């Protein structure tokens, strides 16, 4: 399993909204300035589908990150299964006005675990920047 984490100086309600609403997802869901999310849909419900299309800005490569939600607890937990059957979870914990987000997921077999850790940590760090500015 791979795990990444960040601590955000914002309310749990704000963090949850920015993490889950498509109009915000497309503004933070990328690891670097060379990438962007061109499409996001998110049906935040049990068996609801999510799909985020990430592309290199030079259009040299891209992919869809998609699956269904398997368990949800508002302001606390999101569990999902990707369409390639890998599973993951996102944990939200509020403490003294700060929110810790921890994402844990099964790595894919095509990329090195180190690359996946770096990529996902960069995305979650980008979310932190976005959330603390909004």
Structure summarized in a few sentences:
This protein is α+β, with helices and mostly antiparallel strands and 134 residues long.
Description:
This protein is an alpha+beta fold. The protein has a domain at 2-32 and 73-133: 2-Layer Sandwich (Alpha-D-Glucose-1,6-Bisphosphate, Chain A, domain 4), CATH 3.30.530. The protein is built from three helices and seven strands, in the order βααββββββα. It has helices spanning 12-20, 22-28, 113-133, and strands spanning 2-8, 35-42, 49-56, 62-73, 77-82, 87-95, 98-105. A seven-stranded antiparallel sheet has the order 1-7-6-5-4-3-2. It is globular, with a radius of gyration of 14 Å. The termini are far apart. The model has no long low-confidence stretch (mean pLDDT 97).
Number of helices: 3
Strand content: 35-45%
Q: Termini distance? A: 31 Å
Query: What would CATH call the homologous superfamily of the domain at 2-32 and 73-133?
Result: START domain
Basic shape:
globular
CATH class of the domain at 2-32 and 73-133: Alpha Beta
Question: Helix and strand string, N-terminal first?
Answer: EHHEEEEEEH
The chain-level mean pLDDT equals: 97
Helicity range of the residues?
25-40%
Q: What structural class is derived from the secondary structure elements?
A: alpha+beta
Q: Going across the major beta sheet, what is the strand order?
A: 1-7-6-5-4-3-2
The CATH topology of the domain at 2-32 and 73-133 comes to Alpha-D-Glucose-1,6-Bisphosphate, Chain A, domain 4
- Kindly provide the radius of gyration, computed on alpha-carbon positions and rounded to a whole number of angstroms: 14 Å
**What would you say the CATH architecture of the domain at 2-32 and 73-133 is?**
2-Layer Sandwich
Low confidence ranges: none
The beta-strand count equals 7
Largest sheet: 7 strands, antiparallel
